[in-house]
Write a structure and sequence with these properties.
By secondary structure, the protein is an alpha+beta fold. It is about 20% helix and about 30% strand. The protein binds zinc ion (ZN) (2 copies). One zinc ion binds near residues 16 and 50.
Length: about 130
């Protein structure tokens, strides 16, 4: 099944690469008893993953995907919800928390779409077929 862009009906060729959080590695404990989570390099970061077409993706450059023999360069794109944002300093989180954040992003995106549709008060009039003749 071909996935469609969240914002239009074009086929989605990209996913938003914004990092919502770093993968959870393990929980450690400070000497004073407070617990803290540390990340791991064994798992990929929790990215937004919003399906996007080229038109709705903000191009951020190229990313080197380190995957052993399959290492390659991939374009690095953000969805409209994350355009202009920086994802350095993303917190360490579990997959369930990342899922919750993705749902928040989807809700924001739906609101954006509704606003954009609401801005168009009436559909543009259909072209008058007979006029040219
Ligand atoms: Zn699109
Ligand atoms: Zn995004």
């Amino acid at each position: 099944m071909k996935q469609r862009c969240f914002y239009c009906s074009n086929p989605a060729t990209l996913l938003c690469d914004f990092r919502l959080g770093l993968p959870f590695g393990e929980r450690l404990r400070h000497i004073d008893g407070t617990e803290y989570d540390v990340t791991t390099i064994d798992k990929p970061a929790h990215t937004c993953n919003m399906p996007l077409c080229r038109e709705h993706a903000e191009y951020r450059g190229w990313l080197h995907v380190n995957a052993g023999k399959n290492s390659h360069f991939d374009s690095y794109d953000y969805c409209p919800e994350h355009q202009g944002m920086v994802d350095t300093g993303a917190p360490v989180m579990q997959e369930s928390e990342a899922e919750r954040l993705r749902r928040v992003v989807v809700a924001n995106a739906q609101r954006r779409l509704m606003r954009e549709r609401g801005a168009v008060r009436s559909p543009p009039p259909p072209p008058e077929q007979g006029k040219l003749f």
